[in-house]
RNA sequence: GCCCGGGUGGUGGAAUAGGUAGACACGCAGGACUUAAAAUCCUGUGGGCAGUAAUGUCCGUGCGGGUUCAAUUCCCGCUCCGGGUACCA
């Protein structure tokens, strides 16, 4: 009986589906385990062989945990909203829903062929109204919440209103856009509209005039993580800075918790590091500087180096800073305006590619807070409006950017400083003649003489002490305050697109946004005639005249105090891609609940994701947003865990391995790889599916394209060898390998094991079909272990110790490997084990049955088949993982009590059972070894394959 | 620039509380079975030198140092490759 993988795999996939083998339910009292993959965006290209890598790993882990007795939640779904479907719709007029549904169907077919143990009854699609209802619901909750730093959690806005009414902003510690202060009386004097506008400054979802990344080509704004190197992540179009009124999420309120939460979760160091950098906490001080001699107006700057205060020789404002207008003197006004205009026109990309130092003098002077000396105030685009206060104190000696600026405008600065050098070094022994000294180390010098004029001297302190001392001083004399700044900005939540979640928002007659009542959710995405923005530049939803309103009108009128005659205007923007993916892991816990995102009961059972597998590309997007979202829901009491993903593994990228043929110039003759240097050739990409072990199938090549039909070949050793290179896997490189083809040729079990065998899970590596034979051979060998002369020949004889040793060593190895996600070495271990059993001609149930259980997470189909051949009913998934016994696994290392005054280096490896005397006699009598053992007692003899190879003292 | 990874045979990769370097697999070479092919199985396979051979011996984990009886593993310096990030004060 041969290993007929096609038949076996079809049979068991159908069996699993029919019996709903992987369907799970909450089971209080039984330990749970939640294994999650990052759900895919179903693109039109289908899956290539790189996509399932993470899914295979998680599936192995899920099946493994199932065998160990855990109640395993292992769901899958689709991140179905996205730009490609919409752009395709714009080009073809096809509704994105139609193409998305088709793509999902195709994905599902491809996934099913690989034999994943997903519980499909819990499938989630972000474009499904039953799902995005809860995205809209969460948005409403965000809108109705603010963040209290005192309680360190989100609270209902009603509480904030109460506080305003009793004591205004007095004593409030809350997250807000811009800081403001008003009394209770002032609050009460505000009109309703004014009150609403004020509250926007505190809501966690708020409408704000934001400097946004506007991408004209895509016709929408983008979040910071969607912009890479000044161009859009999708499509690579230029992005410019622009102020627009947009919905935003106050992610920044959670900066500290997002940062400290990292300590408690098991993620890779590099991913945590990426998030830490993105959050970008920096501790420093805000210092106020008086403007002009009258000292009435003050500018605040932020610095992490208050110790360098005596090196400040000028100030710089961002071009967008609100102080620019006020500080530009009449004489400078024209020049300043010109500069600010020019800076505005520059896109993010221009700013990055062109690092020439530019700037303009405002005409005003600030006063040094300690020495009282005048500091010229400049304007330059190297200062960012969005970070700190949009203004800096420049310390050219100890900041490279300030240094560059000071050198560029040295002449002007010198004149403004009365001839003094703007570069004032403050650290002993530093050389600032050609560059600044940025390091935070050294001993301070050059403070003004003690007692004059401010009484602060930092001389002799090291930098850290000086920072602390200066901070103290600033607080004591009220020159500013100690302050922590974060790089993390609020997330812009509006997209001017069609294919996304509609906001549950309408605008009342005064133009203020109002939330729809939760009862009318979901607000469904309407039909439109075209997917482009309207002629007046409104988002595509502007094309839907009465959209949705008709269906919600009655419900709204019944539940809310809304004037039915008011002309309602629903929000025309839609939500961004990360909206739908921010809480999908919670929905899997209770996917059909119509009353709640997730019930308390289900949430308390499944709690959070125990293992999350996905790519690093989401480090600063999805993985920040969903942590934020989860923490918010945690504050609300909707979920019981503060962090959504306890452990996270990043699978590496699978790159493509392209093949080349070499065409002799001006001919239709192709020359094999190692002969190509003798000719003048041009390399040509050739479809990797026509190549096997780098040898070209010339017939397929001739049939590939008409122009190659009469191609000639110059062979070597009777073969045409192709060259190769590692490139991105893409259609244009002809290096896309489709998992369906592999499954058809070798079977899903081979694909699964080979993807794991390819190398460490977290490492990026090229796909190379060469070598898959080895894994396929292993499975055939495993199959043959059960048969003799074509019939099943598994006996019930007891196993020998030798056979048990093979089994138990393997159990132990697989267990530790799976725990460490070292699946590649597991596959090797299986190969070794099976080779040994083949050699021992072991066909015993006592060995093969547990071994099949052990192998089943990796190669589930063949194992199910063999399992049933052994006479078991039902799925192997219901069986129990075998335990290993120490006595069979400890054959390589053991304690060997010897005492001798010997030397170490052996002339030969020694046999087991040798006496101390014999060991002594066998070792080389050299100086090194003698030194090693001198005066020490050997503790352990390490024996490998029956021979002593080492003595540990 | 800064922060992470990582350099091991022809190839993918094993092995790090320091202890037989190259497991396992691919490829290659030779052999068996076949009219032949496919499939399967067996043997060899880091390099140099010596030997008919078993074998012996020296060199070998990017480069240069160091610690140690012992270094792919630890420390210092350099170099190359990959990833992340960047006027964040």
Write up this protein:
This protein is α+β, with helices and mostly antiparallel strands and 953 residues long. Helix content is 35%, strand content 17%. The chain has 32 helices and 36 strands. Strands 23, 24, 25, 28, 29 and 30 form a six-stranded mixed sheet that branches. A four-stranded parallel sheet has the order 2-1-21-22, covered by helices on one side. A hairpin with a 5-residue loop joins strand 18 (505-507) and strand 19 (513-515). The protein starts with a helix and ends with a strand. The chain binds one RNA strand of 89 nucleotides through helix 10, strand 11, strand 15, helix 14 and strand 30.
Gap between N and C termini: 55 Å
CA-based shape: globular
Major pleated sheet:
6 strands, mixed
- The number of helical runs is 32
> Would you tell me the overall average pLDDT?
85
Number of strands: 36
Radius of gyration: 35 Å
Give the low-pLDDT segments.
891-910
Q: Strand pairing plus helix content: what structural class?
A: alpha+beta
Helix proportion range: 25-40%
Tell me the β content. Answer: 15-25%
Question: What would the keywords be for this entry?
Answer:
six-stranded mixed β-sheet, 953 residues, four-stranded parallel β-sheet, RNA-binding
Record the SSE blueprint:
Layout: H1 5-19, E1 32-37, H2 52-67, E2 71-73, H3 83-92, H4 96-113, H5 129-143, E3 145-148, E4 153-156, H6 157-167, H7 184-189, H8 192-200, E5 205-215, E6 220-222, E7 227-228, E8 231-232, E9 240-249, H9 255-260, H10 269-279, E10 282-290, E11 298-303, E12 314-317, H11 323-327, H12 330-345, H13 348-353, E13 360-367, E14 374-379, E15 391-394, H14 400-408, H15 410-416, H16 463-476, E16 480-485, E17 491-492, E18 505-507, E19 513-515, H17 549-559, E20 569-570, H18 577-581, H19 584-587, H20 600-606, E21 611-614, H21 622-636, E22 648-650, E23 654-664, E24 669-671, E25 681-686, E26 691-692, E27 695-696, H22 698-704, E28 712-714, E29 723-727, H23 739-746, H24 748-757, E30 765-766, H25 772-784, E31 787-788, E32 791-792, H26 801-819, H27 823-839, H28 845-855, H29 860-869, H30 886-889, E33 893-894, E34 910-911, H31 916-922, H32 927-933, E35 940-944, E36 947-952
Parallel strand pairs: 1-2, 1-21, 12-14, 21-22, 23-30, 24-28
Antiparallel strand pairs: 3-4, 5-6, 5-9, 7-8, 9-17, 10-11, 10-16, 12-15, 13-14, 18-19, 18-20, 23-24, 23-25, 23-29, 26-27, 31-32, 33-35, 34-36, 35-36
Helix pairs in contact: 1-29, 3-4, 23-24, 24-25, 24-27, 25-27, 26-27, 26-28, 28-29
This protein binds one RNA strand of 89 nucleotides through helix 10, strand 11, strand 15, helix 14 and strand 30.
């Amino acid at each position: 009986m041969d290993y007929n993988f096609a038949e076996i795999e079809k049979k068991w996939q159908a069996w699993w589906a029919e019996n709903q083998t992987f369907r799970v339910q909450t089971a209080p009292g039984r330990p749970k385990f939640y294994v999650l993959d990052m759900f895919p965006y179903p693109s039109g290209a289908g899956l290539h062989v790189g996509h399932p890598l993470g899914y295979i790993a998680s599936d192995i882990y899920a099946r493994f945990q199932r065998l160990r007795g855990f109640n395993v939640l292992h769901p899958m779904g689709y991140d179905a909203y996205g730009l490609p479907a919409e752009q395709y719709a714009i080009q073809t007029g096809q509704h994105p829903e139609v193409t998305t549904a088709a793509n999902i169907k195709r994905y599902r077919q491809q996934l099913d062929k690989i034999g994943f143990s997903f519980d499909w009854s819990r499938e989630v699609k972000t474009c499904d109204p039953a799902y995005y209802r809860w995205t809209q619901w969460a948005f409403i909750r965000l809108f109705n919440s603010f963040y209290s730093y005192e309680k360190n959690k989100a609270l209902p806005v009603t509480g904030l209103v109460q506080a305003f009414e009793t004591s205004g902003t007095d004593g409030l510690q809350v997250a807000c856009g811009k800081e403001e202060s008003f009394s209770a009386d002032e609050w009460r004097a505000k009109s309703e509209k004014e009150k609403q506008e004020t509250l926007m400054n505190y809501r966690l979802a708020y409408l704000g005039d934001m400097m946004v990344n506007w991408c004209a080509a895509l016709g929408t704004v983008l979040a910071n993580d969607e912009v890479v190197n000044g161009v859009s992540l999708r499509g690579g179009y230029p992005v410019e800075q622009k102020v627009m009124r947009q919905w935003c999420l106050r992610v920044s309120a959670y900066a500290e918790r997002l940062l400290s939460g990292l300590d408690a979760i098991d993620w890779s160091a590099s991913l945590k590091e990426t998030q830490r950098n993105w959050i970008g906490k920096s501790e420093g001080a805000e210092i106020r500087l008086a403007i002009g001699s009258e000292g009435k107006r003050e500018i605040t700057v932020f610095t992490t180096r208050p110790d360098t205060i005596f090196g400040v020789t000028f100030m710089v404002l961002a071009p967008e800073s609100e102080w620019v207008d006020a500080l530009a003197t009449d004489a400078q006004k024209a020049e300043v305006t010109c500069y600010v205009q020019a800076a505005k026109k520059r896109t993010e990309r221009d700013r990055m590619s062109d690092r020439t130092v530019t700037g303009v003098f405002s005409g005003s002077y600030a006063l040094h807070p300690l020495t009282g000396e005048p500091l010229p105030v400049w304007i330059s685009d190297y200062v960012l409006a969005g970070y700190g206060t949009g203004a800096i104190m420049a310390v050219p000696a100890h900041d490279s950017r300030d240094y560059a600026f000071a050198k560029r405008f040295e002449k002007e600065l010198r004149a403004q400083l009365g001839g003094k050098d703007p570069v004032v070094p403050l650290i002993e022994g530093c050389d600032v003649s050609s560059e600044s000294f940025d390091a935070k180390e050294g001993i301070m010098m050059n403070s003004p003489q003690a007692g004059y004029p401010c009484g602060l001297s930092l001389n002799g302190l090291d930098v850290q002490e000086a920072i602390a001392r200066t901070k103290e001083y600033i607080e004591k004399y009220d020159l500013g305050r100690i302050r922590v700044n974060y790089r993390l900005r609020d997330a812009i939540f509006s997209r001017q697109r069609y294919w996304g979640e509609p906001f549950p928002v309408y605008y009342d007659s005064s133009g203020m946004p109002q939330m729809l009542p939760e009862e009318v959710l979901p607000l469904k995405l309407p039909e439109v005639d075209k997917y482009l923005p309207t002629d007046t530049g409104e988002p595509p939803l502007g094309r839907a005249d009465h959209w949705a309103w008709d269906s919600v009108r009655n419900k709204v009128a019944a539940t809310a105090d809304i004037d039915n005659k008011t002309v309602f205007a629903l929000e025309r923007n839609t939500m961004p891609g990360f909206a739908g993916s921010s809480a999908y892991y919670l929905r899997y816990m209770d996917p059909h609940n119509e009353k709640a995102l997730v019930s308390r009961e289900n949430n308390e059972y499944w709690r959070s994701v125990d293992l999350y597998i996905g790519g690093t590309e989401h480090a600063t997007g999805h993985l920040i947003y969903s942590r934020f979202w989860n923490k918010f829901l945690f504050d609300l009491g909707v979920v019981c865990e503060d962090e959504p993903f306890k452990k996270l593994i990043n699978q590496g990228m699978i790159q493509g391995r392209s093949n080349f043929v070499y065409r002799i110039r001006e001919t239709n003759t192709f020359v094999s790889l190692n002969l190509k240097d003798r000719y003048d050739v041009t390399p040509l990409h050739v479809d990797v599916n026509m190549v096997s072990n780098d040898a070209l199938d010339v017939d397929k090549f001739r049939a590939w394209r008409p122009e190659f039909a009469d191609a000639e070949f110059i062979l070597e050793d009777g073969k045409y060898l192709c060259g190769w290179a590692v490139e991105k896997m893409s259609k244009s490189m002809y290096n896309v390998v489709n998992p369906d083809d592999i499954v058809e040729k070798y079977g899903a079990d081979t694909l699964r094991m080979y993807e794991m065998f390819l190398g460490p899970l977290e490492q990026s590596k090229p796909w190379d079909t060469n070598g898959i034979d080895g894994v396929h051979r292993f499975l055939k060998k495993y199959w043959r272990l059960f048969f003799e002369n074509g019939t099943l020949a598994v006996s019930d004889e007891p196993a020998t110790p030798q056979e048990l040793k093979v089994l138990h060593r393997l159990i132990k190895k697989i267990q530790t490997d799976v725990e460490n996600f070292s699946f590649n070495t597991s596959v090797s271990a299986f190969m070794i084990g099976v080779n040994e059993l083949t050699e021992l001609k072991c066909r015993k149930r006592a060995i093969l049955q547990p071994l099949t259980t052990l192998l089943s997470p990796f190669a589930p189909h063949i194992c199910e088949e063999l399992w049933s051949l052994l006479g078991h009913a039902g799925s192997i998934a219901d069986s129990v993982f075998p335990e290993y016994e120490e006595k069979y696994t400890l054959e390589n290392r053991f304690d060997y009590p010897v005492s001798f005054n010997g030397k170490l280096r052996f002339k030969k490896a020694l046999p087991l059972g040798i006496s101390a005397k014999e060991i002594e006699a066998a070792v080389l009598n050299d100086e090194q070894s003698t030194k090693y053992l001198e005066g020490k007692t050997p503790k352990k003899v390490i024996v490998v394959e029956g021979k002593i190879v080492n003595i540990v003292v």
